[in-house]
UniProtKB/TrEMBL annotation:
Region of interest (Disordered), ranges: 569-595
Protein name: Histidine decarboxylase
Domain of life: Eukaryota
Requisite cofactors: pyridoxal 5'-phosphate
Length: 595
């Protein structure tokens, strides 16, 4: 039954709203506070998947999912994970499950050759200390390599002066990355208790050698020890690429560990035409990418290779008697290559995918993603209202509305609130951009055309609202009640010159993001009642229309504040009461605009 459910889910995923319309805490209202005392039937459990879980799922496999980077799956990967879960071995040593260890070494050699890594990163060389390992995430791979680099730096300085304490050396260590590097690099530095320097990238968002040299020179003047650089191939913000050919010789000269985070772009190196970004790889100490992104292998799966696995052993080697076996030292024990002791049988799903698609099938999949991104890029460039502030690389395009950042921010909020597609933003040197990534193998050219039509339509709304006159509405609501409304509905009520006359300002109708459809529904209900009760008052109808139509001036919670304030003070005129009894609401024209 679950297999059928999964197949049906994936087959019909384009029919689901890609981004959920729920508020924080929605799920707790749908399930009991405590676990069941008695067993429940499987029919009840599976029914709750659709009732409880699916309303709050962001559908990452949807053809309309363009946020973040891909997190693709495939049926061979799914079957590999099912088998691994059924076997459920813990492959911390060769002896704990020989097939788990040996298949991983073979598959990592396959994958290393597929992306064009030098032989010194593979397990096959005679007397080689290099090799590959499957980690959980690229974040963990960066942290593992930073710790290994730290161990090597401390060991090197201890050899020069045996009286130096590890803690003293560690306090002087400094690591480097680009200002475009992933947040996990910063986290690795925090946990590793080392200083982290963020070096400004060039106009192409690329980390260059001259800027690295400048920062290193300043740190060495302070008696600090440069020990680690994380270069990125395919940054999160704009899919930019650091220059390994310039950075590599510097790291070699300074005896710094050079790690490459290619989490997204690494899959693309299966295609020879994209391998030019790997120029300089012979300087690198470690590299990692995520097959769990673009290669259709289920999360979690990060492929990591090192030039010298002995550095990992020196960092993570803890070997109590109960973990030793008769082949210790003769076979690979992956517990010495990672932070956790235990290891899932992740190699199965990777093996299944590579065999089922073949290198040619994977290349076709990658090239199709790039082609669709090129199509989207062409559509954006053809519309003068938009701009692309950074070069398109691989399957990602960053774009924005021309003008101030708030226009693009409003565009993104409204797109996500509508739920027909999903994107996320990035900040590129102070410019707010929308990241559009081709993330699903189910995405077609027609889907790209459809998504662009959605973006253009919403952009027209946003730009149209910018041209409308700005209208300020005032309602006489007591100050205490203003504060109460402010606490309930957000910071949309600001006090005007008169303490008894709050002015509704700030925001746009797009700002319904915080409470989603629930707030919109309440707003609609409230206004429907309000309009019915005021139907015999032309003046009130004009004021209501002004509130509804002035998208520039009023956010959704602003409008609710206004309505609540009027209703709570009897603002709806009874038929027996003259219009003069209504609370004063002024519609002031700004800059001479006609209200």
């Amino acid at each position: 039954e679950m297999v059928d459910y999964i197949a049906d889910y994936l087959e019909h995923i384009r029919e689901r709203r890609v981004y959920p319309a729920v508020a924080p805490g929605y799920l707790r209202q749908l399930i009991p506070e405590s676990a069941p005392l008695e067993p429940e039937s499987w029919d009840d459990i599976i029914a709750d998947v659709e009732r409880v879980v699916m309303p709050g799922v962001t559908h990452w496999q949807s053809p309309y999912m363009h946020a973040y980077f891909p997190a693709l799956n495939s049926f061979p990967s799914l079957l590999g994970d099912m088998l691994a879960d059924a076997i459920n071995c813990l492959g911390f040593t060769w002896a704990s499950s020989p097939a788990c260890t040996e298949l991983e070494t073979v598959v990592m050699n396959w994958l290393g050759k597929m992306i064009g890594l030098p032989d010194e990163f593979l397990h096959t060389r005679v007397n080689s200390t290099g090799g590959g390992v499957i980690q959980t995430t690229a974040s963990e791979a960066t942290f593992v390599c930073l710790l290994a680099g730290r161990t090597e730096a401390i060991r090197r300085y201890r050899e020069q002066d045996e009286e130096l304490e590890d803690a003293e050396i560690n306090s002087r260590l400094v690591a480097y990355c680009s200002d475009q590097a992933h947040s996990s690099v910063e986290k690795a530095g925090l946990i590793g208790l080392v200083k982290m320097r963020y070096i400004e990238s060039d106009e192409h968002l690329c980390l260059r050698g001259d800027r690295l040299l400048e920062v290193i020179a300043r740190d060495k003047e302070k008696d600090l020890i440069p020990f680690f650089l994380c270069a990125t191939l395919g940054t999160t913000g704009a899919c930019s690429f650091d220059n390994l050919q310039e950075l590599g010789p510097i790291c070699k000269s300074e005896k710094m560990w050079l790690h490459v985070d290619a989490a997204y772009a690494g899959t693309a190196f299966i295609c020879p035409e994209f391998r030019h970004w790997l120029n300089g790889i012979h300087y690198v100490d470690s590299i990692a990418f995520n097959p769990s992104k673009w290669m259709m292998v289920h999360f979690d799966c990060t492929a990591m290779w090192v030039r010298n696995s002995e550095a990992l052993h020196r960092t993570f080697n803890v070997e109590p008697l109960y973990l030793q076996h008769e082949n210790s030292g003769l076979a690979i024990d992956y517990m010495h290559w990672q932070i956790p002791l235990s290891k899932r049988f992740r190699a199965l799903k990777l093996w299944f995918v590579i065999r089922n698609y073949g290198i040619k099938g994977l290349q076709k999949h990658i090239r199709e993603g790039v082609r669709l991104a090129q199509k989207f890029e062409a559509l954006v460039l053809a519309d003068q209202r938009f701009e692309i502030p950074a070069p398109r690389h691989l399957g990602m395009v960053v774009f924005r509305l021309r003008g101030e950042n708030h226009l693009t921010e409003r565009l993104l909020k409204r797109l996500n609130a509508r739920g027909n597609l999903h994107c996320v933003p990035a900040a590129l040197k102070g410019r707010y951009v929308i990241r559009f990534t081709v993330t699903s193998q189910r995405t077609t050219g027609d889907d790209i055309t459809r998504d662009w039509a959605e973006i253009r339509a919403v952009a027209a709304e946003i730009l149209g609202e910018e041209k409308k006159p700005i209208v300020a509405a005032r309602a006489r609501v007591p100050l205490a009640e203003t504060r109460e409304l402010n606490a309930s509905f957000g910071s949309s009520l600001l006090l005007a010159n008169s303490p008894m006359s709050p002015k509704i300002v700030n925001g746009s109708f797009a700002a319904i993001f915080d409470n989603g459809d629930n707030v919109l529904e309440e707003f609609s209900r409230m206004f429907t009642r309000f309009r019915l009760e005021a139907k015999d008052s032309p003046a009130m109808r004009r004021r209501i229309k002004g509130i509804l139509m002035t998208g520039k001036q009023f956010s959704l919670d602003s409008r609710m504040d206004l309505v609540q304030g009027i209703i709570s003070h009897g603002g709806v005129r009874p038929r027996s009461e003259p219009t003069s009894a209504l609370p004063l609401m002024e519609e002031d024209s700004v800059d001479g605009a006609d209200s």
